[in-house]
Automatic annotation (TrEMBL):
Keyword terms: Carbohydrate metabolism, Glycosidase, Hydrolase, Polysaccharide degradation, Signal, Xylan degradation
Residue ranges of domain Glycosyl hydrolase family 67 C-terminal in the record: 466-689
Keyword Hydrolase: yes
Catalytic residues identified in the record: 302, 376, 404
Protein name: Xylan alpha-1,2-glucuronidase
Species this chain originates from: Caulobacter vibrioides (strain ATCC 19089 / CIP 103742 / CB 15) (Caulobacter crescentus)
Similarity field: Belongs to the glycosyl hydrolase 67 family.
Stretches of the chain forming a coiled coil according to its record: none
Pfam families: Glyco_hydro_67C, Glyco_hydro_67M, Glyco_hydro_67N
A GO BP entry: xylan catabolic process
Superkingdom of origin: Bacteria
GO cellular component, one term: extracellular region
Length: 711
């Protein structure tokens, strides 16, 4: 009787214990539909033995775990099965020589998955030149089953187009995350290296499933402490954990470290003692972390120290560090996100002005890491003019996955279309088709050291990214880093199927909701090319009235330039002439009102309130309508999601519902506060049918958020 009560008790508890909370990300491996299970199980009845290298061991374990979950039986249990063998093979293994597999085309990290017959048995070969390719292939194979595709006749070859596929964590050593909206840092520096949280393995699995192969562990606003022996030991413990998953660790390097931890009086990059400090530091790190990736540096930007403090250049600084890590195979990522304290120049022009003249002068192991746009991860920015302008330099992309300017973690904004918009932009540097994607994958200028970095949105929250849907932004970033030309709608479909399930009644509306979500955020925050209109410091909510302070280019009024006569930043020849930084055809189009896309209108032009938009609306009316359109879209997402309750587990459904309500209220707040502010200049009524703001302008201006996260 007591036993029965216990079993019943456990059964009652079980659903709660199993409730999904998002921890499993897109690697949930929930059972596929009964009808499909038999076919999949037949294809995956046994895994042939594999060499026990660290990476092949985790590859095999992942395959077993995935198949067990998806197909419902341990694949190994049926070893010896006549058919349905899966063969994992790396390099010239006897098991696969003679199969005529095109291994040569796979490079160091690519893989192939092919259905063949080996020894009379129907076999799925997952092969690569190196073990890591096999692990990537295993994740791909599992994703085929997760997304409901056939695995009967496979002939897949996949090779990453970008060499360094990186996450950048803006994580401080005290676990506070700059611009982090998902809890604390996942890197528990205090307990490392003695204790490595098992979560680190799941972090590595998730990244490897996307092909991410590098992670910068600490903030670009760096502390020299991260380069001291105790912290190197901590980083080494993480590196050991990540290594089987093909992930290298990198650290940020504070440029003044020679003074702060090296006892020197200068950090001048041409000073022999400084150069010796960095060389010795690199040697010390590589002794502990033999495959250390290298350094990421923010120099002479927003108060960070750098070579210009000594009258030296970015080239002097970057090359000095490159010489230190170069002999070990390390790389230096040097950020182009710079704007000077003294410069009255349009901030959008400064990165280009500083870096373009140095084209061809950086060492081969330096990557200049360029943000997608010239200001700062705004909801919409035209592509950065440096793309296409430095053909003799390794240029890497920096995207922001964490949503500093896009509603933190409570707004559902799928960033895929935003990333895709930048990557598909045509720089025209070498004629039509010179897309940013082709700069990034190196094909435009024949560059080998290619890179894409994403500022991570990962934290200690149980769901990793602060919300269920923000996981999609980590996911799409990884997929685009592998292939910058991949379509983000298809990626959203994969993510939805793997994260919530393959039922089309769920997938179709969710994907459609995701695909329009970024445009909606642009509408309710900064329509028609407006930018940098958020609250001061924390960047939460609207703050179009922000003015004063230490520098004009940290204010909203500097960017909107609203007055009674009009609104917008003139970046044509009559203004800052930033359009001249683009290839002539691109710049001419941006500068021409007949050519520029209205989505970028006020980024490049200052226009009267009565300027006629293509719709026939005046600029003022069109702006107001767009704010409202954004709010309506969020209404639509709320409705759609409410109707999806039957297809989503209760806990995740509830969390998303709550956040969508927050987003709805905040979208309204953005609309109302922005309209209230700009109407003081436009002095025009709202178009018919557009309701007045809910509160007075004074009300919105008085709101304060001293405890907003991520500052
Ligand atoms: C890490 C913006 C952010 C800062 C960030 C900076 C950068 O200015 O607000 O928090 O600092 O970009 O990218 O370096």
């Amino acid at each position: 009787m007591r036993f029965l009560a216990l079993v019943l008790g456990l059964l009652l508890l079980a659903p709660a214990a199993r409730a999904e909370d998002g921890y499993d990300l897109w690697l949930r491996y929930k059972p596929v539909a009964e009808s499909a299970r038999v076919a999949y199980a037949a294809r995956a009845a046994a895994i042939a033995p594999v060499a026990e290298t660290p990476t092949l061991t985790v590859a095999r374990a992942e395959l077993e775990r995935g198949l067990t979950g998806l197909v419902g039986q341990p694949a190994s249990a049926a070893a010896g099965a006549r058919d349905g063998v899966i063969l994992l093979a790396s390099g010239a293994t006897p098991a696969i020589t003679g199969l005529g597999l095109p291994l040569k085309t796979l490079g160091e990290e690519g893989y192939l998955i092919r259905t063949v017959t080996v020894g009379g048995k129907a076999t799925t070969v997952i092969a690569a030149n190196r073990d890591i390719g096999v692990l990537y292939g295993v994740f791909r194979y599992l994703s085929l089953i997760q997304t409901g595709q056939s695995v009967d006749k496979l002939d897949i070859v996949s090779v990453p187009k970008v060499k360094l596929r990186m996450l950048n964590h803006w994580d401080n050593l005290d676990r506070h995350v700059e611009r982090g909206y998902s809890g604390q840092s996942i890197f528990d520096w205090w307990r490392l290296p003695g204790h490595v949280d098992p979560r680190m393995v799941d972090y590595a699995r998730a990244n490897a499933s996307l092909g991410i192969n590098g992670t910068v562990l600490n903030n670009v606003n760096a502390k020299a402490d991260s380069l001291t022996a105790p912290f190197i030991a901590k980083a080494a413990a993480l590196a050991d954990t990540f290594r089987p998953y093909g992930i290298k660790v990198y650290l940020t390097a504070r440029f003044s470290s020679p003074m702060e931890i090296g006892g020197l009086k200068t950090a001048d990059p041409l000073d022999p003692a400084v150069r010796a400090f960095w060389k010795a530091k690199a040697d010390e790190i590589y002794k502990t972390i033999p495959d250390f990736g290298g350094f990421l540096v923010k120099a002479n930007s927003e108060g960070q120290p750098g070579p210009q403090d000594y009258g030296r250049t970015h080239v002097d600084g970057a090359n000095m560090l490159a010489d230190a890590v170069g002999p070990h195979g390390g790389v230096v990522f040097w950020r182009a996100f710079v704007y000077s304290h003294e410069q009255p120049e349009d901030r959008a022009k400064q990165g280009y002005n500083e870096f373009k003249p140095f084209d061809g002068q950086f060492r081969d192991n330096v990557v200049i890491q360029v943000k997608n746009g010239a200001i700062d991860f705004q909801p919409r920015e035209p592509f950065h003019p440096l793309f296409g302008a430095m053909p003799k330099t390794n240029l890497g992309m920096e995207f922001q996955i964490t949503k500093e300017y896009l509603g933190f973690s409570t707004h559902l904004v799928y960033l895929g279309p935003m990333f895709e918009e930048t990557l598909a932009s045509d720089t025209m540097a070498k004629g039509k088709g010179s897309t940013v994607a082709k700069v990034i994958d190196g094909s435009l200028d024949g560059r080998k050291l290619t890179a894409m970095a994403g500022v991570a949105n990962i934290g200690s929250d149980r769901n990793w990214s602060g919300s269920q849907f923000d996981q999609a932004n980590w996911y799409v970033f990884g997929r685009l880093a592998w292939d910058p030309e991949a379509g983000t709608q298809a990626i959203a479909q994969d993510w939805t199927r793997m994260t919530f399930g393959a039922d089309p009644r769920l997938v179709t509306p969710v994907v459609s909701m995701m695909m329009g979500s970024r445009e909606a955020a642009v509408d309710y925050m900064t329509p028609l090319g407006l930018h940098h209109q958020m609250g001061e410091g924390h960047h939460y909510g609207p703050g179009p009235w922000v003015s004063g302070g230490p520098r004009a280019d940290w204010t909203s009024v500097y960017y909107a330039k609203a007055s009674e006569t009009g609104i917008g930043f003139d970046r044509t020849a009559t203004g800052s002439n930033a359009t001249a930084q683009y290839a002539p055809a691109v710049g001419a189009c941006y500068a021409d009102l007949k050519c520029v896309d209205e989505k970028d209108l006020l980024w490049f032009h200052h226009l009267p309130w009565d300027y006629r938009l293509k719709s026939g609306d005046t600029l003022w009316d069109g702006m107001v309508k767009r704010y409202g359109r954004g709010v309506s879209y969020v209404d639509g997402m709320n409705r759609t999601w409410a109707g999806l309750a039957p297809y989503v587990d209760a806990r995740r459904h509830r969390e998303v519902s709550d956040y969508l309500k927050i987003q709805r209220a905040e979208a309204q707040w953005w609309r109302d506060a922005s309209i209230a502010w700009f109407q003081t200049f436009a002095k025009r009524p709202l178009p018919a049918g557009e309701p007045a703001p809910n509160h007075t302008l004074e009300y919105y201006k008085a709101l304060g958020f001293p405890f907003a996260p991520g500052i």
